[in-house]
Specification:
The complex is a heterodimer of chains A (294) and B (265). Chain A has two domains: 215 residues, P-loop containing nucleotide triphosphate hydrolases (Rossmann fold); 57 residues, Alpha-Beta Plaits (2-Layer Sandwich), CATH 3.30.70. Helix content of chain A is 32%, strand content 32%. Chain A contains ten helices and 14 strands. Chain A has a six-stranded mixed β-sheet, sandwiched between helices. A four-stranded antiparallel β-sheet of chain A has the order 2-1-4-5, covered by helices on one side. In chain A, helix 4 packs antiparallel against helix 5. The longest helix of chain A has 16 residues. The two termini of chain A are 38 Å apart. Chain B has one domain. In chain B, helix 8 packs parallel to helix 11. Classes of the chains: A alpha/beta (294), B mainly alpha (265). Chains A and B meet through helix 2 of A and helix 1 and helix 6 of B.
């Protein structure tokens, strides 16, 4: 079953870019990464499916229901953590958490206390007096205290120290094990790599690709660098599967995806002095998605 | 109900302050009444020296100034002015404070529809206004009965005082529609003071002309205390216009608010 199903979703702001014709789905029980540079449209997408903003075209379904028409009903089972958290400043942490819990028609007290314990949060303080990281913790607790079936995170780690980040990730994995589906938006690749099963890459408001992390990382890409004795024609290696082809003095490097034999045969026909074949970092794989195609 | 109580709590302090300011105002002015009524002839002479336009603008009625209800209506102009600011403040903050404090994301991703949010907030605002009016009317009737020099009609006193609530409703509704339309209001007080005083000044200017139709331009002119004292009734046409303004503003606010994009911070 698809927990999130996005079909040709479009949102335009006047002339400014929003998202165009976006389609992807998130299956039940998976941790789905949503990655792209700042301003690519990640938040716009998330805000649309949360019905904070309304689409100009297309539609999105959550739990099989239209995300606009059934927004309040869907929201019962969603936990949302925005990138920047702001709460009623003059409230105490405990009052805010109680206020948040009061929207859900179930007893959230037990889970709330557990979360407060895990995140090491001082609930007697006023929100106004909290540091950015501690505000973020409040956000995490209020987003998870009703044990939602779908957790939507928009750049959630900013402001958290590494220890808390680790605890937070463990918490997410635990929720995931209990059956929660997670949509995790980020521009930090290592986070996504650590947590997610599949990832959608978004660029300039469009989905570039949806892939399994394992596919991206292990199987398909090789980072190949060769040093040649003589200059090679620039188009010689420009075959299907080759990306990011660069020439520097006598060194040629590129990312290759596909049948490794074809490229090895090509290499064999050239007089080379040295050869490296490595597993690329995810960063490098993503870079060519990020770079603008002119 | 949780939003309602949350909102009430948020308005608690400012409501108390506004309510007691209104009461302080009425006590301060009404305590002058005994001495004014004693020397009412002197005051009348003094006022006759003012140009008629000025008298009208200030709401001074020579004949009734020495009577308790006449004097009360005169100071009531200022009570309404204050009350209008209070109501406009609440109305304008209802939606705009969620945007300004950036808490809209929190509230609007909860399992509650936008119209329900607006309704809860509106109910909380109405509760605070009703509280203010009830406390005010009690305090004002006590002080008026203390300083009175002759018998007066309690019914007319209550009718005059009730117009405070009417004017507040109009400004509450105006505040709400402004806060729904304007994307981001940095300072509620600037908006509410600006709007209230604009209407107040329009009211002063139109009252000098004596042109009846121009009275529709300012809510401060909708409830003429002189008319209420004379006829012990409200002017139906103005009452209807008031109801019209409130309902159109509220309906429009609901439509806009439920369709509005909540922008990221």
């Amino acid at each position: 079953m698809n927990v999130i199903e996005i079909n040709n979703l479009t949102k335009t702001y006047g002339n400014a870019r929003g998202i165009t014709d976006l389609s992807f789905h998130v299956e039940e029980g998976e941790i789905f990464g949503f990655i792209g540079p700042n301003g690519a449209g990640k938040s716009t997408t998330i805000r649309t499916i949360l019905s904070l903003i309304y689409p100009t075209g297309g539609s999105a379904k959550i739990f099989g229901k239209d995300c606009i028409d059934f927004a309040p009903e869907i929201a019962k089972e969603i936990g949302y953590l925005p990138s920047e958290v702001f709460y009623y400043d003059n409230m105490k942490v405990i009052d805010l958490l109680k206020y948040s819990a009061s929207f859900y028609k179930k007893d959230c007290k037990k889970r709330m206390n557990e979360l407060v314990e895990i995140m090491d949060l001082d609930i007697t303080k006023k929100i106004d007096d909290l540091s950015l990281g501690n505000k973020k913790k409040v956000g995490i607790v209020q987003g998870l205290l009703h044990e939602p079936k779908l957790i939507i995170l928009d750049e959630p780690t900013s402001g958290l120290d590494p220890l808390m980040q680790q605890r937070f990730f463990d918490l997410l994995l635990e929720e995931n094990k209990k059956g929660a589906t997670i949509l995790f938006s980020s521009h930090i690749l290592s986070e996504v790599q650590r947590l997610c099963d599949r990832v959608a890459i978004i660029k300039e408001g469009k989905i570039v690709t949806v892939e399994k992390i394992s596919n991206l990382k292990e199987n398909n890409y090789k980072k190949i660098k060769i040093e040649t004795r003589n200059a090679v024609d620039r188009d010689y290696f420009n075959i299907t599967g080759v990306n990011d082809l660069t020439f520097k003095d006598s060194t040629i490097s590129f990312l290759f995806r596909g049948d490794i034999n074809t490229v090895l045969k090509k290499i064999a026909e050239v007089d080379i002095t040295n050869l490296w074949i490595e597993e690329p970092d995810l960063e490098e794989i993503f870079m060519h998605y990020y770079e603008k195609e002119d | 109900m949780n939003i309602y109580f949350h909102e009430l709590k948020a308005y608690k302090n400012s409501t108390l302050i506004w309510t007691f300011s209104l009461i302080a105002l009425v006590i301060l002015f009404m305590s002058m009444f005994p001495s004014i009524s004693r020397d009412v002839e002197v005051f009348k002479e003094l006022m006759e020296g003012f140009p008629e336009a000025v008298r009208k603008a200030l709401g001074l009625e020579i004949e009734s100034f020495g009577t308790i209800l006449g004097f009360y209506s005169y100071i009531f102009l200022y009570v309404t002015l204050f009350g209008a600011i209070q109501a406009m403040n609440i109305g304008t903050s209802i939606i705009s404070k969620e945007v300004r404090d950036k808490t809209a994301d929190f509230l609007l991703t909860k399992p509650v529809s936008r119209s329900k949010i607006l309704t809860s907030k509106l109910m909380a605002a109405l509760t605070t206004l009703i509280f203010t009016n009830v406390v005010y009317v009690v305090a004002a009737s006590v002080i008026v009965s203390q300083v009175k020099t002759e018998a007066y009609s309690m019914k007319i006193f209550l009718m005059i005082t009730l117009t405070l609530f009417f004017v507040q409703l109009i400004f509450l509704a105006l505040g709400i529609i402004i806060s729904v339309i304007v994307p981001k209001i940095k300072s509620v007080l600037t908006v509410s003071l600006g709007t209230v005083f604009t209407f107040y000044i329009i009211g002063l200017l139109t009252s000098t002309t004596g042109d009846e139709s121009k009275r529709y331009l300012s809510p401060f002119q909708y409830f003429d205390t002189g008319y209420i004292i004379k006829n012990s009734s409200f002017e139906t046409s103005f009452l209807l216009v008031g109801v019209g303004i409130v309902s159109v503003s509220l309906v429009t606010s609901y439509i806009i608010y439920t369709k509005k994009d909540i922008q990221a911070v």
